[in-house]
Amino acid sequence: MKGKQLAGEKAVEYIEDGMIVGLGTGSTAYYAIKKIGELVKSGFKIKCVSTSTSTTELATTLGIELVSLNDVESIDITIDGADEIDKNNNAIKGGGGALLFEKLVATASKKVIWVVDSSKMVTKLGDFLLPIEVIPFGAKHVYNTLEINGYQPKFRYTNEMLYKTDSNNYIIDVNISNVSNYLQLQEWLDSITGIVEHGLFLGSADMIVVGSEDSCDTLFV
Ligand SMILES: O=C(CO)[C@H](O)[C@H](O)COP(=O)(O)O
Prior knowledge:
7-stranded mixed β-sheet; 4-stranded antiparallel β-sheet; Rossmann fold; Alpha-Beta Plaits
């Protein structure tokens, strides 16, 4: 837990007064958001774009001003977590189910910082299942396509109910441990009707802050 806190808080040092900031989702982004709350209390004028209802709730309790992604030209800096990052700056995200808004916010950002503890840094992606967000209509057909192609899909459940994202879609988690060409996989997933988005984020961070028990490393990529 310490590594997540160190990484989350370190990334906040890159925020300047007056910036528009993208707020990620998850237990590492949590520490960054708490720290941003402190900046706001100290007088920083920051506007933030949230990536999930849970982040919106947290930011609101901390008195952070939130704006819609539609109301900003771009975002100066986004701080977000990740589930796995390989040595080429490719990541799996979406363990918390917020991958669609996270990708939209990252795409609109001038600078993206991923904050992780050292357990998230891997030589190869795939121990963590890749989340794929699908619209409910015909979701079983998308599932079948993924199954036929060997990705061992699993619909995500929570409390024995199908998990619903903030956009009321389902998540299918797939096994990509046998994949080596992520670009090809991305292209294929992007081509399947019914898939809204997937959690492959290929080379999309500018900086990665990796926290361990007592220190953190900042990688500029
Ligand atoms: O992509 C995400 C949510 O959709 C999170 O950033 C990812 O799951 C990492 O979460 P945590 O910091 O709790 O380990």
